[in-house]
Write a structure and sequence with these properties.
single chain; alpha+beta; HIT family, subunit A
C-alpha cells in the first residue's frame, strides 16, 4: 500500500483543514481529536509522510514517541490524570481508519470509561482542553 497525500492528516499538516494544535516541533504535530474518547484526547503525527508504523522510518517513530511522552506528561498535569492510554493502529485489519501514522494519547482517570468511538465532540470543550494542555506544556 502506498501513502495517500490527500488523507485528512496530510491536509491538516498543509493547513487545508483546521485543527486545534497543542504542540509541534520540526518533526511532529500534536492536535486535538475532534471525536474524543476522553477529555483531552490528542493525536500525534509525523510531519513527513508515513502510512503507519509498518513503513515509518526509525527516526519518525522516535520523534513521534518523544512527542507522545511530552504531551502525556502535560496531560497528567493539565487534567490531574492518573495515567494515559496510548493507541496506535496499523492497516484496516488492525483498526486504522486514517492512513497517516498517528498515535492516540488519552488522559485517564480511575473508574472513568472511554467515550464511544465516532462521536463528534463539543468544540468549545475541545478548545478548552487544548488550552489546558498548552498551558501545562509551557510550565
Amino acid at each position: 500500500m502506498s501513502y495517500d497525500n490527500d488523507n485528512i492528516f496530510a491536509k491538516i499538516l498543509r493547513g487545508e483543514i483546521p485543527s486545534e494544535m497543542v504542540y509541534q516541533d520540526a518533526d511532529t504535530f500534536a492536535f486535538m481529536d475532534i471525536m474524543p474518547r476522553a477529555e483531552g484526547h490528542v493525536l500525534v503525527i509525523p510531519k513527513s509522510p508515513a502510512r503507519n508504523m509498518l513503513d515509518a522510518s526509525p527516526e519518525q517513530l522516535a520523534a513521534c514517541l518523544a512527542t507522545v511522552q511530552k504531551v502525556s506528561q502535560a496531560m497528567l498535569k493539565a487534567f490531574g490524570a492518573a495515567g494515559i492510554t496510548l493507541q496506535q493502529f496499523n492497516e484496516a485489519a488492525g483498526g486504522q481508519e486514517v492512513f497517516h501514522l498517528h498515535y492516540h494519547v488519552l488522559p485517564r482517570h480511575e473508574g472513568i470509561r472511554l467515550n464511544p468511538p465516532g462521536v463528534m465532540g463539543d468544540q468549545d470543550l475541545i478548545k478548552a482542553s487544548a488550552d489546558k494542555i498548552r498551558t501545562a506544556l509551557q510550565a
